[in-house]
Fold this sequence. Notes:
This protein is α/β, with parallel strands linked by helices. The chain has one domain (77-210, 241-374): Rossmann fold (3-Layer(aba) Sandwich), CATH 3.40.50.1110. It has helices at residues 2-24, 46-70, 82-94, 106-110, 114-121, 136-144, 158-161, 169-176, 179-192, 204-210, 243-246, 248-262, 269-288, 302-311, 318-325, 336-339, 351-368, 370-375; strands at 100-104, 126-127, 151-155, 230-232, 238-240, 292-297, 328-331. Strands 2-1-3-6-7 form a 5-stranded parallel sheet, sandwiched between helices.
Amino acid sequence: MRSSISNSESTVIEETRARLRVVESPASRVSPPTRGFERPVPALPWLKILLGVVSATFVLMFAWELEMRHLGLRAGDLDDGRAEWAVERRKVDAGPRDSVVIIGDSRILLDTDLATWQSLTGRRPVQLALLGANARPILHNLADDEHFAGLLVIGTAEFSYFSDDTVPGVLRYIKTESPSQRTGLQLHKMLSRYFAFLDSNYTLFKLLERHRWPERKGVVSPYEDVWKLSESYVDRQTYLWDRLERDDYLRKQAQTIWTDFFSGPPVKPDKVERIIASTRADIDRIRSRGGEVVWVRPPSSGQLLNIEKARYPRGKVWDKLMNDTGSFGVYFEDDPVMQHLSCPDWSHLSRASAIAFTDAYVRVLDGHVDWLRTHTNHSN
């Protein structure tokens, strides 16, 4: 009996102690109000430190700018991308209905000099061609645009036009572009006029990725792309980067990539028929509003031209495209002036050759296209 009472008392005592521990725990106490945490600032020469950091930043930025210019980058190269394209696309809707618009891939983009166009016709085209892009979605977009009833110049590399590429990102971007993206573009353009190191193709991380580190056998090379192909200026005036004319490594790299990328079997006749049918429908809509569509086949050379002739025979592709769409086209092999221009990478003209090519093809268009003669003011 005595043992039983002792056990009960012991249990009561333990429970009482447990309750006291809960009551006295830090979490259950009401803490007095705090006065706030104060951290003493060490007595250091903060102004000198700030000046040192700012000075080091400017010295490093200046050194980086010099190195980028040594690699061939230039202040004033404004870069090119979706935002720049969107600015030009909005010009079509904001401008007159009879605008002159250029679409296509990188060849017509790099091989056209807008100032030459303007000097010959009095009209400065809106440049909507895109690097590596299929022109058909842009053609369809303009055919849907009831405001556009001008001259559409389609620059054609057969591989890009007769491919099955999806809608380019620019058409999605222009619908979703935010105010901050527009503001960022203007800020970037302003700074790019003074700093060459802002080139998006030569950022620090891209240079680290592309550094020629020792490679193990069987590892895929990180150099299987064209690092920088072009320079872009106001109104998306774009030229081949002249470093490709004098840098053997970059030039041969581009040539290898083009020949690998363009290689393949001949295009199938049913594919040509399908693409021409959709093209004709879009062209008919533009013409029904009083517009016109013409074509330009810019130069290519070397092994790349041989591949293109084998895959896209002129009689079965280009000639058929012109005939079935009832269009006039300028093919570079038909003009002696265009046949001997410089294509350093086999696919794009040098800047001097681009100016000469523009002069030549615009004069041909002016002599054969009624729309151009009746809608332009000639100065030459």
